[in-house]
């Protein structure tokens, strides 16, 4: 079976997951994003790439932050953007996900940016479009369940390439709640595809999933050991709703063991960069001094995120 | 008293209801909509018709679906669209409906798309504008109580004309909860005005209003009988909130008696079309095999709905 | 310490409060607004002043009405507008106000329109931007706690100047709940700066703050006395949530004593204008006959409000 993300010429048709996306496609997205970072610094931050196109932000799960990044990216490409908070809409009236999609297709949608609490929902929509021969409508996964958050993974790769240049010599560490993180899944897939030789996963046993094993991936339960000589530290967000759950003692205890402080970071290379997908829980995953410090590239990630989303959208519409 | 929907030259000033709208006006709207269906298939789906105009989606009752269709239509005409979910706004602060309208007029609104749970609210707004000499501001009823949903009725007429060509030889059946349906009221008015010789209303006695009698209208309580040799089957939506009410036994029982299945549809002409205003309750009003089948034109209705709304807005702004 | 609202050349950098804003700046805003009132009467109500700029409506407190006026003003200047209802967003996930701001800055925001229940929040954001050297990003206070609502104050000044021409001979009365009104604070500051020789504050003792004393300001507890020979009557809104509180007897009793009626208004000059920031509680603060009467300029305030907000935004972006 062909990769549903690619058309028959290997062009990007949907962006659903970074797992299985070829290295040349990943690299093409990062290359396309580069000039878009400059658009944002112009006096008039607009390009006519998606003029007259209708982009639907189809959010079955509320996320103002992610929705905003896609809305800005689409508007900078001159698209018409319609925000649909679908939890309050037709699905509440008993309409199925695919009926909702069919209706929006009938309104001549050009692109769906889909956020859904259920893993696989964007994939289901893409398959439905393919089955109906709708090659003119594109799906971007903006986060589905615990499965994937590919544009976050891409902006992370853009950030690493921007600061480190080359993937082939890097040691990259992911820290924290890997178990519940769709971001981590996308990051690991992309890092492996782009040729990072050593990926480390650091966290308490209760928050590390089984089945992570792959060549080049090492698991650590100790920060000092896991961060030793790494080039990149990728912190993960601890979901508030987990903080007082069975898997974790308290936020304070988590911070003591896994929160990134100057002391723990000193184990890494002196020019290591510190990343976080946001929003940060200061004093839980990360100390404020580090979050605002010289090694942090957390706000660069946000800036590159707009450019990467513009790149994905313009490639899909091409 | 003059029809408040028409200006002194007979041009469309407000669209409040299809009841009493002359046949030539209905036909003019359908004729205007036709080229707009082609706009949607262009590379750049935009026309400058409403450029610099402010369209307010004034939704006193939540309906993401309907709001979306008007938002897309207005944006394709290059209008600036402002969405106001008014239940959470000033009326909650005790401001009256007409004070809200006066305020928006003072902000130089050009058009109000009004959805309201109370029958007559858009009419009240239009009368207020007329009394104040504001002939430059236009009202479109996007559904008011049990009264009317004229753009839905118009897109239904567009769909019938598209597939059947001529109204003058048709037998059209409406099926289901006519009692609570503003859609049905608009459909019946338009079908009669456009010269459909036989309109059938099919449903349980508890869901058929009294006072339906008009020449050419026949009431049926049996599907096999009511659908016999019809050209068009217009299913109505059963509101979820009614399903377990006093007027109905259970969704299952409703489906058994009034749900459209292949067997029941076989009574209609073999080229009959099946319509539904959406969102559908599959397995309640309609069997999935019919909803997705060759006779269904349900998604065409949605597509034509954008064109019809563009037509109405452009005629009002002319 | 320099006024954070002004850049080193005295140009407007942020609009946070009217208190302390020089008279020439106030006058410049009113002068800039004048031509924008004409834009609204053109066929195409759009200017390219903010084309390609991203304006964020950052509403930490819900206010559809105020948000709408800024949204319209920004769209008429061709900006891309993103509405963020932040109570449902990242701050709910524990992200701090300034982290949210930093993230939006990283998305290349050009302007923040900030509404917040806490007095001083827009000031905090502006200080943060200044501390970070972000002179390219501008803050407009759209109402913070009990502190200030500067664009409301400005549109009120525009309205007075429009109808009365000259501030230097006027007697202006503010009536009602001054204690809880950010609008009153902004009005008093602007009236004083613009040279109004006599400002009267009229209301029950429980709703008048202490510390109002300044040259030219007089306090009254009787309407007949307070309104005698005034040129301008500025009614204040009585918040619903206060109406049955400890400070007030009942809405009926408030109306009897402080509600503006024809009888009470007759004490003012015969050409006095009546203003209200809206939304009005008819029959509480003001009689309907007055609200809709010949002396009321309440809807003019709304119209001028769009022009004033366009003026502020265009001066900030200049």
Mind explaining what this structure looks like?
Three copies of one chain form a homotrimer. Chain A is an alpha/beta fold and 318 residues long. Chain A folds into two domains: 14-148 and 303-317, 3-Layer(aba) Sandwich (Rossmann fold); 150-297, Aspartate/ornithine carbamoyltransferase (Rossmann fold, 3-Layer(aba) Sandwich), CATH 3.40.50.1370. Chain A has helices at 23-39, 64-76, 97-106, 121-131, 150-164, 182-193, 223-226, 251-258, 262-265, 288-291, 298-317, and strands spanning 54-59, 80-85, 111-116, 138-144, 171-175, 198-202, 217-220, 232-235, 273-275. Chain A has a five-stranded parallel beta sheet. In chain A, helix 4 links the parallel strand 3 and strand 4. In chain A, helix 2 crosses helix 11 and helix 5 packs across helix 6 (182-193). Chain A starts with 22 loop residues before the first helix and ends with a helix. The mean pLDDT of chain A is 92. Chains A and B meet through strand 2 and helix 3 of A and helix 2 and helix 12 of B.
In brief, what are we looking at here?
The structure is a homotrimer of 318-residue chains. With 318 residues, chain A is of the alpha/beta class.
* Low confidence ranges of chain A: none
> Helical element count of chain A?
11
**Widest β-sheet, arrangement of strands of chain A:** 7-6-5-8-9
- CATH topology assignment of the largest domain in chain A: Rossmann fold
Instruction: Give the helix/strand class of chain A.
Output: alpha/beta
User: What percent of residues of chain A adopt helix (DSSP H or I)?
Assistant: 25-40%
Oligomer: homotrimer
Shape of chain A: globular
The first-to-last residue Cα distance of chain A is 24 Å
- Along the chain, the helix and strand elements of chain A come as HEHEHEHEHEHEEHEHHEHH
Integer tally of domains of chain A: 2
The averaged pLDDT of chain A comes out at 92
So what's the CATH class of the largest domain in chain A?
Answer: Alpha Beta
CATH architecture type of the largest domain in chain A: 3-Layer(aba) Sandwich
Question: Can you say what the CATH homologous superfamily of the largest domain in chain A is?
Answer: Aspartate/ornithine carbamoyltransferase
Radius of gyration of chain A, whole Å: 19 Å
Strand content of chain A: 5-15%
Total strand segments of chain A: 9
Give the chain pair forming the largest contact, with residue counts: A-B, 25 and 29 residues
What kind of sheet is the major sheet of chain A?
Answer: 5 strands, parallel
Keywords (chains A, B, C): Pyrimidine biosynthesis, Transferase
Domain Aspartate/ornithine carbamoyltransferase Asp/Orn-binding (chains A, B, C): 170-315
InterPro entries (chains A, B, C): Asp/Orn_carbamoyltranf_P-bd (IPR006132), Asp/Orn_carbamoylTrfase (IPR006130), Asp/Orn_carbamoylTrfase_sf (IPR036901), Asp_carbamoyltransf (IPR002082), Asp_carbamoyltransf_Asp/Orn-bd (IPR006131)
Binding site for L-aspartate (chains A, B, C): 93, 182, 237
